[in-house]
Every structure is written in C-alpha cells, then in structure tokens.
Design brief:
With 198 residues, this protein is an alpha/beta fold. It has 8 helices and 7 strands, in the order ααβαβαβαβαβααββ. A 7-stranded mixed sheet has the order 3-2-1-4-5-7-6, sandwiched between helices.
C-alpha cells in the first residue's frame, strides 16, 4: 500500500469510529475506504497543478481530504454548514497531521459573498443535482478554473438542466468522464470557467 493510501485508510478508520457526528453513510473502515475514499481518487487527474481548491458540502471530508493527501502543494478548503461535522473533521485532519487543509463552517451562499471567483477548482460529491451544484460552485471559481462534480445514472438528464444557465454562470459545455469499469454509471462532470459569473 502506498504512503497516501495508508494515510487514507487511517482516515477511513477515524471516520468509522467518529462519535461526534455522523460523517459518512456507510459503516466500517473497510467499506468507507473501498466505496468512498477510493472512489474519490478518480478525480485526482482533474486537479490543477497549483493554487486553491474547495470541496463544497464536504461533510466528512470527501473528496477534499483525498485531494489534500495526494496533492500537498495545493491549498484545500473544506466547506460545510454543519458545525458538528466541521469540528469532527478538524479533529481528524489534526490527528492525520494534514497541513494543507482549511476547514470553513459556513453556508456556500454566505461564503461566496467574500470569496467570489477565488478558486482554481470547486468540487462537490453527493451534494445536489448538477444544476444546483453548478449554481453553487461557479461563482467560487476564477476564470480559467474548473467546476467538478461526481454523478451517476441520471448524468445526461441533470446536465441538460444546466445548459440554459451555462452562459450566466460563465461555464463551458460540460465534459463527462466515466470510471469504475464498463458496467459502471459513475462519472465526473467538469465545466471550464470561461467568463465571470453574472
């Protein structure tokens, strides 16, 4: 097992044993590692070479913690509105000694007022429909940056709902990358930020 994966397995154990807040849907470290942590690795290829990125609706820290472990040169923000979750993840990050994470407890709509178009990438996993996710993330991303979300079976239906808002949000046409094998419907959708969000 690589150094990164051994850190992330410890992370899965800490998530599984967390009593302060329910951070993930699945139970048991093995299950969390295999179903959630490894799933997040599929997004690593989309990360910028430098700069700041934000994981919106981070919950237990997925995918942001995975990003931080693999890419220590990036500054990673984990944004969630539930204080109990933020405190629990803060303890986990401190225990794992991950230095490039900043945890922010705020609603996205409030956070963006002071941090508009500051990030090189904004991502979300299991937060909302593609339309809502794009509306939340696009204002956070600087021109030239990228919006990223994890999706499944309804991806085409969901992204068609974004199309009539793309220009307003300043986003390009979406790019879809499927992963997880031939039978899998799991995919990552990305949009380039091509102009400022109106």
């Amino acid at each position: 097992m690589s150094l990164q994966r051994s850190i992330l397995y410890k992370y899965a154990e800490l998530l599984a044993n967390c009593t302060r807040a329910r951070l993930v849907g699945t139970r048991g470290a093995e299950e969390i590692f295999n179903l959630q942590v490894l799933d997040c690795e599929a997004s690593l290829e989309f990360l910028p070479s430098s700069g700041k990125i934000i994981d919106v609706g981070s919950g237990g820290g997925l995918p942001g913690v995975v990003w931080a472990v693999y890419r220590p040169e990036l500054k990673i923000f984990l944004l969630d509105s539930i204080n109990k979750k933020c405190e629990a993840v803060r303890e986990i990050v401190q225990e794992l000694e991950i230095k490039n994470i900043e945890i922010v407890c705020s609603r996205c709509e409030d956070f963006v007022k002071l941090n508009r178009e500051e990030f090189d990438l904004a991502g979300a996993r299991a937060v909302a429909s593609a339309k809502i996710t794009a509306e939340l993330l696009a204002p956070l991303v600087k021109v030239g940056g990228q919006v990223l979300t994890f999706k499944g079976k309804k991806v085409h239906e969901e992204i068609s709902e974004v199309n009539n808002k793309r220009r307003k949000l300043g986003l390009s046409k979406p790019s879809i990358k499927f992963y997880g094998g031939e039978e899998s419907s799991k995919c990552i959708v990305t949009w380039e930020k091509i102009c400022a969000t109106s």
